[in-house]
Amino acid sequence: MSDDSSADRSTKPPMLVLLESLAFYRNARVGLVVGALFAVLLYGVRALELLGPVIDIRDYPLFGPDVWFLLLAFVLAATFALLVAIGLTVVEAVRGARDLSAERSEEKS
User: How far apart are CA 61 and CA 39, in angstroms?
Assistant: First the structure.
């Protein structure tokens, strides 16, 4: 079984092996879901006025305030998704480094 995994790794580009070992694609999907839910929640609070009425004292060029806040929610979702994905990837990298360190210390003893 180890021969198959070593042969599989030798045919893949090193960057792809790194991304797979860090579970980057899973982390990106989790980040997208969390970011989208967070943005929908905050947009819902704003649009449904769950924290009270919004005092509109500004003029919004081209579109009304709902469109501008929808665009802002998209930016918030993308940013939050990226932060969550980076955070999960860093946690996975630290966990992998600790596991590798533990394996090496077991081999020495």
Answer: 23
Tens of pLDDT along 21-36?
Answer: 888 899 999 999 999 9
**Burial tier of 92 (Cβ tally within 10 Å: 0-12, 13-18, 19+):** middle
Give pTM, 2 decimals.
0.72
Contact assessment for residue 78 and residue 13, using Cβ atoms and an 8 Å cutoff: no
Under 8 Å between Cβ of 76 and 38: yes
Burial, 62: exposed, middle or buried (Cβ in 10 Å; 0-12, 13-18, 19+)? Answer: exposed
pLDDT (tens digit per residue) in 81-99: 999 999 999 999 999 889 8
Task: Dump pLDDT digits (tens) for 43-52.
Answer: 888 888 777 7
- Helix (H, G, I), strand (E, B), or coil: what is residue 2? helix
How far is residue 23's CA from residue 2's CA, in Å, rounded to a whole number?
20
**Nearest-CA neighbor of 54 among 40, 68, 62, 65?**
65
